[in-house]
Amino acid sequence: MPLRGFRAAGPWGWLPPLLLVAVAACAARASEITFELPDNAKQCFYEEIAQGTKCTLEFQVVITGGHYDVDCRLEDPDGIVLYKEMKKQYDSFTFTASRNGTYKFCFSNEFSTFTHKTVYFDFQVGEDPPLFPSENRVTALTQMESACVSIHEALKSVIDYQTHFRLREAQGRSRAEDLNTRVAYWSIGEAIILLVVSIGQVFLLKSFFSDKRTTATRVGS
After folding, report:
1. pLDDT at position 120 over 60
2. Domain boundary pick from 127, 152, 176
3. Is 172 inside a domain boundary?
């Protein structure tokens, strides 16, 4: 699945399974996508990257997924493995492209026989453009420009923190709902067992006090 400079919307409500979220980005290309990875499946993504470009891949298994782990693999255009991790819940990897070409990164759930996973990843390509066209000038920035740059950087950090907190909140909610379902089933099972045992005890006690009459048969005369 090729990616061409997409970024998810700022504060987004939680993403259900099978939802692909992507919104156009600016000069520094970035891709934030949440997708469902079935059991015994592998999903790969491709990105055209220029030589010398700094890139960051960050991923996390969220909402569903057994032990919340996947295999991740990143390759350069020559097929050389730049990053490879097995059964990771989350991780981040930063690299600088050594040559022009198509880079491939794959998420694998082939080790799982029946559990599907919901995976979120953020793939950033390049640096953010300067906030002001003249930001790289030799002269110093004005006090207003410096304040705007500081606020801009702080807001980007806030967005990143919000994204991670939403991921953790969604994962925690999923685990809580799963635990609540298990407790409910266990309570129903205990109630059924208690009812069966109670009925059994009633019949057992009743058999102790029942009047058993025996009949004698006279043999011969």
Report:
1. yes
2. 127
3. yes
pTM > 0.70: yes or no: no
Range of the domain at 100: 30-127
CA distance 202 to 206: 6
Domain assignment present for 42 = yes
DSSP the chain: -B--SEE--SS-PPPPTT----EE--SSEEEEEEEEE-TT-EEEEEEEE-TT-EEEEEEEEES--TTT-EEEEEE-TT--EEEEEEEESEEEEEEE-SSSEEEEEEEE-TT-SS--EEEEEEEEESPPPPSSTTTTSSSPPPHHHHHHHHHHHHHHHHHHHHHHHHHHHHHHHHHHHHHHHHHHHHHHHHHHHHHHHHHHHHHHHHHHSS-----------
Tally of domains within the chain? 2
What average pLDDT is seen over the chain?
A: 77
Instruction: Flag whether pLDDT at 9 surpasses 70.
Output: no
